[in-house]
Amino acid sequence: MKINAAVALKKGEPLVLRELSLDELRSDEVQVRLVATGVCHTDAIVRDQVYPTPLPAVLGHEGAGIVEAVGTSVTSVEVGDHVVLSFPSCGVCSSCLSGYPAYCLDLNALAFGGARTDGSTAFSDEDGSPVSSHFFGQSSFASVSNVAERSVVKISKDVPLDIVGPLGCGIQTGAGAVLNVLEPEAGSSIVIFGTGAVGMSALLAAVLANSTTIIAVDIVDSRLERAMQLGATHTINSKTEDAVERVREITAGGANYAVDTTGNARVFAQMTKSLGTLGHGALVGAAAPGTESPVDIGSLLLTGITISMVIEGDSVPQTFIPKLISLYQAGRFPFDKLVKKYDFADINTAFADSESGETLKPVVVF
After folding, report:
1. Which residues pair with 216 in a beta bridge?
2. Most C-beta atoms within 10 A of its C-beta, which of 74, 103, 118, 354?
3. Which domains does the chain have, with CATH numbers?
4. What is the DSSP letter of 186?
5. Cβ neighbours, 10 Å, residue 2
6. What does the alpha-carbon distance between residue 307 and residue 201 come to, in Å, rounded to a whole number?
7. Is 341 helix (H, G, I), strand (E, B) or coil?
8. pLDDT tens profile 157-211
9. What local confidence, expressed as pLDDT, does residue 295 receive?
10. Angle 184-190-194 from CA coordinates, rounded to 5°
11. Could you say which DSSP state residue 306 is in?
12. How confident is the model at residue 290 (pLDDT cuts 50, 70, 90)?
């Protein structure tokens, strides 16, 4: 089958739109015609080979579309179903069997390996050469893709497919960090470092959880203004203010909860210092391997704080994503306010606008 895709050809270069061949569906795969897909920071850092996936590659890991065919062993969906695509997992390791598929022991190979476990790729170029596929089990920067069944989440057909893709990664990451890991009680305080799509999703989740002091920290005033519109009670521009000092002032000693969405070593240290006694912080921001943070363990020992490293919001996509959709439909989780749509042909503009901060969550529509 001939399909259209945005291909990462060389490190750091814009994606190139081209026609590829899609191979035969495997028994444990679902063929999905994409309606839309989110553009995520992880796509950018893989394009730039901070996290290496063999190039050329079809990236994309926040897809949404309609099932066109199913493999012979697939039982979770059928032709015509509407689906959101999320991260892959093996389903049989100790983490998967314990209900933590985001910590699948084979996640790195399944998400970033660029091929099926047998080494084959779903895509090939016009000369027959292989193009890396199955990025996060899906490679959603393609008009049609053969997707690992465990990356597929069935959703109701009354939900607009052109906005739900980001639930597969960025939005479930921020929301899940708050709702699944931190679990703030009503009336609590929380500080969120970084107000991109993941941070804003964490903010929406904090509002949902009835936190009454919600502090957004960033260096872009326009994003801080947006955070106030979405439910923040306080904002801090850490370029002009001492974030730790201001958080401790606002919360009378330190926040109950905190989320670092930046993956920045200095910001991570600020998060640990912003927590009050017995506070709980979550790191969700991706950092380059080898990134180290100067954390004062001598002082922090006396606080009893907890720091959690969180992947994909500690979620089980097949149960958590439908819950987020239900909350959205009830008007309690308005994640659509984070989305700006682009034509698929303008995917590189979507990347640029995300990097500049002009757009919180770009979604390209086929």
Report:
1. 192, 235
2. 354
3. 2-168+334-365 (3.90.180.10), 171-313 (3.40.50.720)
4. T
5. 10
6. 20
7. strand
8. 999 999 999 999 999 999 999 999 999 999 999 999 999 999 999 999 999 999 9
9. 84
10. 125
11. E
12. confident
Q: Are 69 and 31 in contact (CB under 8 A)?
A: yes
User: Phi/psi of residue 290, each to 5°?
Assistant: 95, -5
The token pair that represents 140 in the structure block? 């959603």
Report CA-CA distances (Å) from 200 to 86, 87, 285: 19, 21, 13
What does the DSSP assignment read for 175-244? Answer: HHIIIIII-PPTT-EEEEE--SHHHHHHHHHHHHTT-SEEEEEES-HHHHHHHHHHT-SEEEETTTS-HH
pLDDT value at 287 more than 90:
no
The Cα–Cα gap between 365 and 324 comes to 21
Is-contact 175 333, C-beta < 8 A?
yes
225 token code pair? 């203004």
d(CA 15, CA 46): 12
pLDDT digits (tens, 9 = 90+) for 74-112: 999 999 999 999 999 999 999 999 999 999 999 999 999
Asked whether the beta carbons of 299 and 277 are under 8 A apart, the reply is no
Q: Give the phi and the psi of residue 164 in degrees, each rounded to 5.
A: -85, -10
Token couple for 139: 């490679």
What pLDDT, on the 0 to 100 scale, is given for residue 291?
85
By the 8 A CB rule, do 58 and 135 touch? yes
Whether residue 19 has pLDDT greater than 90: yes
Residue 216, token pair as written in the block: 């957004």
Size of the chain in residues: 366
- Beta strands 275-283 and 255-260, pairing class: parallel
Under DSSP, is residue 25 helix (H, G, I), strand (E, B) or coil?
A: coil
Phi, psi of 221 (to 5 degrees): -60, -35
Cβ atoms of 84 and 309 within 8 Å: the answer is: no
Q: Strand, coil or helix: what is 325? A: helix
The average pLDDT across 311-336 equals 97
Tell me the pTM: 0.95
How does 146-166 read in b/e, with b if 16+ C-beta sit within 10 Å?
bbbbbbbbbbeeebebbbbbb
Does 143 have pLDDT greater than 80?
Answer: yes
